[in-house]
Specification:
alpha+beta, three-stranded antiparallel sheet, elongated
């Protein structure tokens, strides 16, 4: 379950930022996650609750912003929506797609005290 290591990385970032930004507690974490990041949101929420115990983010809310997967079709020269890395173009059926959005997994915003 790589969601556990993702959450451990999030806590590490929060602790580093707390030291440099001088905050004591994290109340809410907003994450942007694309469908190509291969993250199971329910597993991530479970792991986040487990990893934040006895940390500056204990009891914090995890808000997930789901981004769409987008790709540029080299064949029909359009931006198309994709849900998996090897989807075909929904317009022309081509597999010559260049992913432009959907691989994201990043902390977008924090609410802190």
């Amino acid at each position: 379950m790589h969601e556990m290591s993702i959450c451990e990385g999030i806590i590490q970032v929060l602790e580093e930022q707390a030291a440099s930004q001088h905050y004591q507690r994290v109340k809410t974490v907003w994450l942007e996650i694309g469908p190509l990041a291969m993250v199971e949101n329910d597993a991530l929420r479970f792991c986040f609750d487990a990893v934040t115990r006895n940390s500056l983010a204990e009891g914090a809310r995890l808000e997930i912003i789901e981004l769409p997967g987008l790709a540029w079709c080299l064949e029909c020269v359009r931006s198309v929506t994709i849900t998996k890395r090897y989807d075909a173009c929904s317009e022309c059926g081509s597999y010559q797609l260049q992913v432009t959005q959907g691989e994201e997994l990043r902390i977008k915003e924090l609410e802190v005290e």
